[in-house]
Design brief:
Residues 1-145 form the UspA domain. This protein is α/β, with parallel strands linked by helices and 279 residues long. It has ten helices and ten strands. Helix 4 (94-104) crosses helix 5 (127-135). The protein is elongated.
């Protein structure tokens, strides 16, 4: 059984992420683990909210009630019979809790909204999403924008600099999604020049071999910054429904995520982002 972890803060964005995950895996036997963390918004809260404190009990009960309400809605709705749901309420920081649950429950994918209830509109990733991406390295993460349409991905863009070798097991989340939904993968090379050096050519050939059996196209953009390149490429094609990245040293994503505000892409992206990790 596939286990999908879905953190929620009960915002519209978080609800859309739940709906997206359920639709994406509608034909698979899955357990969706709904997670809400409380009481760790700042250092002061961490000091005040102890188990014996009335404020702790009040926060816990509030979290449990909201999560149970969501759980009941999902269980009562006409959804796939292949799906089951579980609830987890914990006190602590979201990123640390997610990291623990991935190991405890053998989670295969994390699906979460990109912005929470108080997310700034100019940000592509909310602070919680970034924290999870920077702390969880053994599980793929699917970040779903609030404006994302709930649909299976007809086309997936995979930006790459070809500076690293792609192992099959690291690409597995992308390969499974593309094969399951018969998605087209568009490899997008972004660099200072279109011509590749010998190492890049070898890594490109390796990637193409990994994608055997999947309809694949190759594109290259030069002399343009990464965020603008991805945004323009995605907007120019109606068949792009997802962006996939490999988070590793010297990767495009590794550079992007460390920027405090991704304004150019953040204002416009409407497609989910799949983040995979190199082991």
């Amino acid at each position: 059984m596939k286990r999908i972890l879905v953190p929620t803060d009960f915002s519209v964005n978080a609800k859309n992420a739940v709906d997206y995950a359920i639709h994406l895996f509608k034909d698979e036997v899955c357990e969706f683990i709904l997670l809400n963390t409380f009481g760790a918004g700042n250092t002061a809260n961490m000091m005040v909210l102890q188990a014996s404190n009335p404020a702790y009990e009040a926060a816990l009960i509030k979290s449990q009630k909201k999560l149970k309400a969501l759980f009941d809605i999902l269980n009562s709705s006409e959804r796939s019979k292949n799906h089951s749901f579980d609830m987890v309420v914990r006190y602590g920081h979201l990123a640390e809790t997610v990291k623990d649950l991935v190991k405890e429950r053998n989670v295969e994918m994390i699906v979460m909204g990109t912005r929470g209830a108080t997310g700034a509109k100019e940000r592509w990733f909310g602070s919680n999403t970034v924290a999870v991406m920077e702390n969880v390295f053994d599980c793929p993460i699917l970040a779903v924008p609030e404006s994302a349409v709930v649909k299976v991905p007809g086309g997936i863009v995979f930006p790459s600099s070809f500076k690293n070798v792609y192992k099959r097991k690291n690409l597995d989340p992308l390969l499974k999604l593309a094969r399951k939904h018969k998605s087209i993968i568009r490899i997008l090379h972004i660099g200072d020049k279109e011509e590749l050096d010998e190492e890049q050519r070898d890594n490109k050939a390796c990637l193409m071999a990994r994608l055997e059996g999947i309809k694949t196209f190759y594109h290259a953009l030069t002399n343009i910054d990464t965020e603008t390149a991805i945004r323009c490429f995605t907007e120019s094609r109606e068949d792009i429904d997802m962006i996939a990245f490999m988070n590793q040293k010297q990767s495009l994503f590794n550079t992007m995520i460390r920027k405090p505000v991704l304004k150019g892409l953040g204002h416009h992206t409407k497609v989910p982002l799949l983040v995979m990790y190199r082991s």
